[in-house]
UniProtKB/TrEMBL annotation:
Record keyword Hydrolase present: yes
Gene3D superfamilies in UniProt: Ribonuclease Z/Hydroxyacylglutathione hydrolase-like (3.60.15.10)
Protein name: MBL fold metallo-hydrolase
Family stated for the protein in its record: Belongs to the metallo-beta-lactamase superfamily.
Originating species: Nocardia rhizosphaerae
Pfam families membership: Lactamase_B
Keywords of this entry: Hydrolase, Metal-binding, Zinc
Domain Metallo-beta-lactamase intervals: 32-263
């Protein structure tokens, strides 16, 4: 197994260090769409898809004007995860399976670039997409991103525990080194994806947190990140509980599990080997 950490869409919102904790107030913050490409013997598996090529060709329809105003995404075809996979020498058709933490537009935006891939997601997330929990929750998802008819593989059944987390399921048709783990809060069906690399676990937790300081003891993060986190949460109590469980995971199993979120640029660069980890910016290990 070989793993590549890719940026599926950089965003440059106003706020500087109030949002990402880096530099001054006048600079734009930097947020990424942290995707993971896994090379197996006979196929590629992708975790998260970023904003996708549709965001470049049809930005208003694909992302919405409000999202564009708030996050200032860099709309560049070469910055999409499909183009980054091709730059590694693969075809996008080699991606047979996609695993999503949730269906927000900056995580599922690239699904249409891999129309033949199976898409693994928690059932609660699909029910929210379908409108079971009302228009407020359905509103956060962009219909255009799913118009091609994704090949869904959904999960609801309980499974074996993993480092204190329950309801873990092996993904259908994929090796047991890949697990899906419920982390509700940001959305109702939000999940984390655990990867057994053979040299420890990598744990992609999506939007379970936005700044690595949130998993320190005691937790801390820039005020803008706190405000944003609360504005976009769906189930506050579950989010808070799952963050505490992530802190305990790091405290008890730091040498076994590397935890990283979807949007922190310094975590991504650390895992890419571009910069050395530091206590305040490293992917939690």
């Amino acid at each position: 197994m070989r793993i590549h950490h890719l940026d599926g869409g950089t965003m440059r919102p106003f706020g500087g260090r109030l949002l990402d904790g880096v530099g001054g107030l006048t600079r734009r913050a930097e947020m990424v769409c942290h995707c993971v490409l896994i090379e197996l013997d006979d196929r590629l598996v992708l975790i998260e898809t970023g904003i996708g090529e549709g965001s470049v060709h049809r930005p208003d329809e694909w992302l919405g004007r409000r999202f564009i105003r708030m996050t200032r995404p860099v709309l560049d075809l070469d910055g999409t995860v499909a183009r980054r996979i091709e730059a590694l020498g693969y075809r996008r058709e080699d991606v047979t399976d996609i695993v999503l933490t949730h269906l927000d537009l900056d995580h599922a935006g690239g699904l249409a670039d891999f129309p033949h891939a199976k898409v693994h997601v928690y059932g609660e997330e699909l029910r929210a997409l379908e409108g079971k929990y009302g228009p407020r929750e359905k509103f956060r998802y962009r219909a255009a991103q799913f118009a091609h008819g994704p090949l869904w593989e959904s999960y609801d059944e309980l499974g074996e525990p993993w480092f204190g987390f329950g309801a873990v399921r092996q993904l259908r048709g994929l090796p047991p080194e890949l697990l899906i783990i419920p982390l509700a809060g940001h959305t109702r069906g939000h999940a984390g994806i655990a990867i057994d690399t053979g040299d420890g676990w990598k744990f992609s937790v999506g939007d379970a947190y936005f700044h690595p300081g949130q998993l320190d003891q005691p937790p801390h993060q820039p005020p803008g990140a706190t405000l944003f986190e609360r504005l976009v949460q769906t189930v506050p109590a579950a989010r808070i509980d799952n963050q505490q469980r992530l802190r305990e995971l790091i405290s008890d199993h730091r040498e076994e599990v590397t935890v990283f979120c979807a949007h922190n640029a310094l975590e991504l660069r650390t895992l890419q080997g571009i910069m050395p980890p530091s206590p305040s910016t490293q992917a939690h290990r």
